[in-house]
Amino acid sequence: MITKKVNLSDYNAEEIPNGEDFKIGIVCAEWNAEITNALLEGAYDTLVAHGVKESNIKVEHVPGSYELSTGSDFMLTYTNVDAVIAIGCVIQGDTRHFDFICEAVSQGLTNVSINHHKPVIFTLLTTNDMQQALDRCGGKHGNKGVEGAVTALKMVALKKKLSKLI
User: Fold this and answer.
1) 61, 97, 117, 141: which is the annotated catalytic residue?
2) The pTM is what?
3) 3-class SS letters over the chain
4) pLDDT band, very low/low/confident/very high, at 44 (cuts 50, 70, 90)
């Protein structure tokens, strides 16, 4: 959980693996596009900054955050990516819809990751209001897309390292 003192874009670049040989998929929700496109930009730029070739980054869009699980499953089934960064934004409203969507996405992405034995990175903003979302997609708390890219790079490197032990 983010606290007000954490910047999602802060990380030690020396601790990030070089992604030169990595293939990363990004599945981005169209709903709340102002937010999700900023998260996508943060993720994409961070991947490139750490050596991932632009030709090895596959970006696909889905209508909303609920569809991130299926989109991630499609990405892992029909492409040769090493990991998927699932980007979305759900903002609390007046009904319980928020709770159902957030729970379904978190469980769905976990299941996709386990079923494919590949990292699926949860880069879903779940905020109380639009300002909190803006603060986390390049505002005062940084960009969660950057955090998602860093996590993807670390997880792909971990899998490659451990798979050599078999």
Assistant:
1) 97
2) 0.94
3) CCCCCCCCCCCCHHHCCCCCCCCEEEEEECCCHHHHHHHHHHHHHHHHHCCCCHHHEEEEEECCHHHHHHHHHHHHHHCCCCEEEEEEEEECCCCCHHHHHHHHHHHHHHHHHHHHCCCEEEEEEEECCHHHHHHCEEECCEEHHHHHHHHHHHHHHHHHHHHCCC
4) very high
